[in-house]
Each structure stands twice: as structure tokens, then as C-alpha cells.
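1st attempt posting a full record on here, be nice pls
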Amino acid sequence: MSTPAARPTTSPTVLALDVGGTDIKAAVVGEHGMVVRTTVPTRTADREPLDSVLLAAHRLWESVPAGYHVTGLGIATPGIVDDEDGVVRGAENLGWREVPLRSLLEEELGVPVGIGHDVRAGGLAEWRLGAGRGAGDHAFVAVGTGIAASVVLHGAVYAGGGWAGEVGHGGRTTGEPCACGGRGCIETYASAAGIARRYTARTGVHVPGAREVLERAQAGDVVAADVWAHGVDGLGELVAGLVRTLGLRLVVVGGGLVRAGDALLDPLDAAVRRYLTVHPVPELRPAGLGSDAGTYGAALLGWGASGRGTLTDLVVPV
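the predicted structure (as C-alpha cells):
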């Protein structure tokens, strides 16, 4: 009797979607790294964000190379995200409210789906693969268009029903109006968008982002220096608040603003010290995954949903 031919084996992959206000970063991620990556506009003249998510998922599925099979999908999205129920409770910039995203994607694709907040997903990736790798309790603070945090406690990212980490909003009742409906929120003056907006409001000179404000400050622009310092001081107050509440010894700083390097981290360290008295000053560490943190985080969510555990050998380009 002849021996049956060996069945061809394939390697497992997950589909990873990082939903942003402008683009959806999408990737096929295997056990050892990204296999395929692409982007899809989040919104077009004839396509709403949810349609774009489905389009990106199908494009990824169709792009999976021979020799691989899909075991799950992970998606990271802004808004108030209930990880356990798989529901986006609200995402203003996407026009979403009570969207059962996990069940929609599972019905569409027929594979398990892991869902999470974009910053919590980025924090998960930094913890497992990036600057927080091997750390115990710590926080990841993302400072970009907005401000949010991801907190790792007792070996897990704490979600708080979707509300944990929304540190960019609330806490004050006076000041510049915020998109959340409040006033004087830290996002209004310490986010990258807030820094640029405040400089323009004070000078009448439009700047595209916080980097240009920093450059003007370094060139001797007094208003730019004041706007930058005020923003960094607010971030210091925020980080110190996390330390006072949770006793954290490490805070990973990410988002677009961290590209300023020491021009951000040095005065931020000084600001944190000003707001702390009895608590130990935490180490401030720049994030390591850059703009790919959300995509890697989505991959980790998808890998976990598939029941395959953690991507321990994932290769991350440096």
C-alpha cells in the first residue's frame, strides 16, 4: 500500500486594522512579522468609515499569500470602545454610536475578531513588543491630534469598560471649548493639534502642526516658546496625576509629539518633578514602534481572539 501524500501545511496569520480619522492602516501579520501592508482612506465622497473597514478587511483577505491562512482579525479604533462586548459606544470623528463592530466583522469574515481602543492597542504593542517590553505596571501616553493613555496593571491592559485612559478630556470647567463638550481640557492646549491651534490663535499665523511651533520657539519666538512650555507643563501635570494615582515607575510616551525627542522629554521630566512631592519620579521612555504601534496592537488583539496566545517571536523593524 502506498503512503498517502503529506498534506501541505500553511502558516497562521491575522488581519490587523488600525482605524484612524484619515486612513485605515491594514496588515496581514504572521508569527514572525508583517507579510502584507496597505492603507485605505477612512472616508471618501461615496464611502463611510464602516464600509471602509469592511473594504480593508476584504482587501487584506484577498492579499494573503499562498502558504498562509487567516486565523483571526484584530481592529483598533478611536472612541469609547467596550473591548469585552466588542462594541464601539461612541466615536465622534467616525460618526459611530453603539456599533457592534466585532459581531459585524465576525459575520462578514467568519473568523474570531478582537477589538480595542486605538491607544490601548498601541500600549499593548509597546508593552509586548516595544519600549515597555518586559515592564510591570506602567502607562503609555499617546500625544498626537488628541491625548489618551493605556495603563498596564497586574499583567493586563486595563480597559474600565472602555472609559479607562480618556485622560485628554475633563478635569476643568473653564478655558477653551473642547470637542468633547467641555472647556479647558488638556487636549485643547497640550496635544499636537492644540499647540498649533493656540499659537495660531495668539499670533494670527497659521502653522500646520506642533513641530513648527517648536521650531519657532527654538529660533527665539517668545509666543511659540510660551505655547510649547504651557503644553508640556500640562502633560507633566497629567503624567504626575497617573503616578500619584497608580504609583507607576515607568511612563512610555508616544504619539506624533514624541518625535520632538529631548525637546519634549527633558522639559516634560522637569514638569513631572514639579507636580510630584512624596512619589518617586517615573522613568519617561520614548515609544519604540512609532506609527505602527496601533497596527501591531491590532495584530495582537486578533492573535488573542484566535486563541493562539501571544505573538512572542514577532519581528519588529527598528
